[in-house]
Amino acid sequence: MAGVAAPTEPPSARIVAELRRRIASGELAAGDRVPSTRQLTRDFGVAMATATKALAVLRRDGLVRALPGIGTVVAANPAPNSVATPQPVPADEHIGAPDHELVLSRERIVLAAVRIADTEGLAALSMRRVAADLGTATMSLYRHVSNKDELLMTMADNVFARYPLPAAAPDWRTGLESLCRLQWRGYQDHPWLAVYVSMTRPQLVPRAMKHTEMAMALLAELGLNVRDRLHMAVTLANYVRGLAVNLEPEAQAVQDTGMTNDQWMETQVPLMTEIVSSGEYPMFVAMSQADDVDLSLHTLFEFGLARLLDGLEAFAGQGR
Hints:
Layout: H1 11-25, H2 37-44, H3 48-60, E1 64-67, E2 71-74, H4 106-120, H5 127-134, H6 138-141, H7 148-161, H8 172-189, H9 192-196, H10 206-219, H11 226-244, H12 247-257, H13 261-267, H14 269-276, H15 282-289, H16 297-318
Antiparallel strand pairs: 1-2
Helix pairs in contact: 1-3, 2-3, 3-5, 4-5, 4-7, 8-10, 8-11, 8-16, 10-11, 11-16
């Protein structure tokens, strides 16, 4: 009828419909990474919550799934008719049946939150997003965690618990190396954790505190006083964490560009060649001509850790 406006389609429904179309046409095949929430906000001009809601609907319908360290990908075996027969997009945050609240627990909430942070980064995490993934109302979460700050602290404690402290070491240096490598591995597996951990306003995460306790106990073998032990234990922890804060931005860059760091560096070779050929950068020229130069977060970690421990040993020796 003339003069009657057509109902406006919700922004999240437009995103869902477009991604369904790409999956149905084969443009996005099983295992392909779907656009991240950040990319969807740019492509569709919507808020992060809207993009998050759209992906939650696709997960609910079995079309996509989250893979730690990779992001959201097209499911290998979509639920029957889920592509051809789209389900309605919920008008609010309640995705799933109310019965889900009956099995809601603090552990489920924490595990869901860790999964979101692992796959999409800390910026994508919110109480609303966790509720959407669990198929419940946001307010239901507050029966188990009082606020997002408590959730984050519990997430960090949960992750640190997955990396048991190393067994007794034959000497202080071996023990500290093992402890720092354990932290490095945890940050690599959960890149958001380094962003969350603070050195200026340290969170009282019990299992993280055990790392500092162990480091100070190992440093006691060098005869250092409590003040020096604390400063060196925190210096080592901050060194590992300082390198690890680069992991989450790199993971996001891989998702956004589809290129690994090595692949991206290859694209910079022509510009780098042009710059160093000016004659103003002889050290860079020497580096480019060397066969044994390999600079990465891993090599930086190993080199810096060894030098820190060398310096610690020399520092301790001064007081003897």
